[in-house]
Amino acid sequence: MYNINLTPYYKIFDDAPISAAILHAETFKLEMANQQMLALWGRSSGIIGVPLLDFLPELVGQRYPEYLKKVCHTGQPIQENGAQVLLNRSGKQESVFLDYSYTPIFGEQGKTTGILVMATDVCERELNKLIAQQSIRDVRAMVMSAPVPMCIYRGREFVIEAVNDRMLDLWQGTQNVNLSALKHVFFNGVGYTEQDAGITFTYTPLGSGLKGVAGVCVMATRI
Questions:
Q1: What domains are defined for the chain?
Q2: Measured at the alpha carbon of residue 66, what is the angle toward residues 92 and 99, in degrees to the nearest 5?
Q3: Residues 123-148: pLDDT tens digits?
Q4: pTM listed for this prediction
Q5: Which end of the chain is more exposed for a tag (fewer CB within 10 A), N or C?
């Protein structure tokens, strides 16, 4: 049940193209959340009315609860681009990258009564940045916790160095990879992107800390 004071936000939430939610300023109970935000968190609508750290206990120890308190106390918004947050979704901890903002909602006498949370999933953008800067060894852990299908092919023989469960699910027992694309990226040291059956595949060359390409990282995102 939505708080009656939030009636003006109903239409905004229904039409918002990004993830959005409102938290009570004092208790951080969830007052409203659109379907995009629920999907981002990996939670159902049953969390409406539940305090933030009760339905997202993995945020304990991360900086975001303190930022919310700061917004509540100062009345000043906070926003970040490419922020990394650890979320437990479908029984697994995932590293998710977000552009987000915390904006105070003011009630009578200018008191902060709620916090508007808006977020956009930018995992593909940020992962591509990180991949381009890292070696195979450094990317391996990133692949296993990524919220999108990813794998690493090592060397000229394209041996699978690491593959996460999301990529295995996408393959469904059959490797769906473009060998010509792997060779192009590996031997030329340049990235490549293609689309197939509603999925975008991004191929990124990986260094070894020395000169030359040591492998290729493949990431898949649905269009």
A1: 4-121 (3.30.450.20), 124-222 (3.30.450.20)
A2: 60
A3: 878 877 777 666 667 778 788 888 88
A4: 0.69
A5: N
